[in-house]
Amino acid sequence: MNLKRIFGAILTLLGIGGLIYAAVLFVNGSGDTRDFKSLFIYGLLGLLFFIAGISLVRTTKDES
Q1: Could you give the C-alpha distances from 27 to 11, 30, 38, 45, in angstroms and in order?
Q2: In Å, what is the CA distance from 9 to each residue of 6, 27, 52, 64?
Q3: How far is CA 30 from the centre of its chain?
């Protein structure tokens, strides 16, 4: 297995974790400005890691 694919899988898992944490903050939030900032930061980083990981796994070719 290629090192880029492993790194892409790790980025994808971190992105999924960030998106899930942002969803938990959204559901349990009270509407504060502080809640919105952390929701935005975790959601944006989760989305960025998820997209980067998926694209890294897709573009890396398998070489035997």
Answers
A1: 24, 9, 13, 18
A2: 5, 27, 10, 19
A3: 24
**Total structural domains within the chain:** 1
| 3-state SS, residue 17 | helix
What would the pLDDT profile of 34-60 be if each residue is shown by its tens digit?
A: 778 888 999 999 999 999 999 998 998
User: Does residue 27 lie in a domain region?
Assistant: yes
Q: Is residue 64 part of a domain?
A: no
What is the pTM for the complete model shown? 0.84
Tell which residue, 49, 59, 43, has the closest CA to residue 12. Answer: 49
Separation CA 8–CA 16 (nearest Å) = 12
